[in-house]
Design brief:
Length: 481
Amino acid sequence: MRTADIGLIGLAVMGQNLVLNMADHGYTVAVYNRTTARTTEFLDGPARGTGVIGTETIEEFVNCLTRPRRVMLMVKAGGPVDAIVNQLVPLLDEGDIIIDGGNSYFEDSIRRTMDLKERGLRFIGAGISGGEEGARHGPSIMPGGDPGAWPHVKGILQDIAAKVADGTPCCDWVGPDGAGHYTKMVHNGIEYGDMQVIAEAYHLMKVGLGMSHADMAAVFRRWGDGLLDSYLIDITADILGHTDEQGDPTLEVILDAAGQKGTGKWTVISSLDLGYPMTLVAEAVYARVVSALLDQRIEAAGVLGSAVDESGVAGQEWGDDFVDAIHDALYASKIVSYAQGFMLLGAAGGEYGWDLDYGRIAQLWREGCIIRAAFLDDITAAFARRPDLPSLLLDGFFTDALRKADSGWRRVVTAAVGAGIPVPAYSSALAFYDAYRSERLPANLIQAQRDYFGAHTYERIDRPRGEFFHTDWTRPGGAAT
Ligand code: 6PG
């Protein structure tokens, strides 16, 4: 019987492409899919001539793997992962390894690492980013879980991963239990944020400045050669430049109701749980939610009237260099978003006991994944300068970048508010930036109100932290106690 170096379960597109990628790198891969027809189609189609071993039962699949067995799951997150794990467990031997490559919730990966360890098995939750193309030719891979499993899968995963310019793979051990999937979740949250800041630029150019699609495409093309050099900017230029058979922009026939599968929402939920701001990503998630309320929006546009004049009239007053100001608003907002993302990773590292290497995480995202961007090198450099940097906003490079972008950013937010064009990501990022650098915020009033109606007590500026006071607010001159 032929034996395989690794097995993969779940032959949807991502699974198929990872198998082909492994085969390209000289690995023999066994595959199993719930419906055998798909396995047959794969073997007769894309996998023809690759040496991939097709199996019809999960027992046959397990039996052809070399030991310790390495089984990669590319099935839908949630119940389907548990279902397959439960099928596999009785068939596996001590030390065998299960790698979940889906977009699983990190708490599930924490649980699965523990449960499988108790049964003598080793679990890896590996976030994989890059879509179909990345899976085929080199994704970014963020593995976490049982550290004892890593040496057994490191070679394969690093071989199939994307590489940065010096050849370093965009795959490295992130940390124990849920650390890999948590990092992928934050990646996805940031992905939502990046997409929203780009969408706001498009909206301002289209309805504010009345620009043509060709001109917008050219602007994004130019931006992609500068500070904003990234995959998402590049594909946006392609999308804006795409026309249908009649020569009309394809983008404009696409319904403006955004979907989501939940990873952005999870990021925001985690930020609320940990008490860290993820305001830009939250606005990006809500922007999708608002877009999806299409019927209500249409009714409201009729009842309330839209503030926006779609003809580009608003922008006549905005000045010739307004496109540059949009660039600065986008760049500054992106800096805030990544600063928030890395603050959240720091908080999660503390909460869950993960010793995360932030500079390395930025390099895992440098190629292969959806948020790949030159900008990530600046983040790695910032953490090299100060590994315990509490926030990217405190690093000199980003401080200077924000100072330079400041006036354009404010100009864009002000103009957008005046014209009734929603820019929730730019404006929430600006609000965070202004709050974060304020020595004094109005939270003293919040504390006073809490103390007034609920005797929740407050700390004083002239006393050490941790001493709490209460005022009898209804009695003039009421003494603090
Ligand atoms: C990736 C993507 C991928 C996918 C997400 C987001 O890193 O390759 O993030 O995981 O696009 O599922 O999808 P939604 O926008 O549907 O939430």
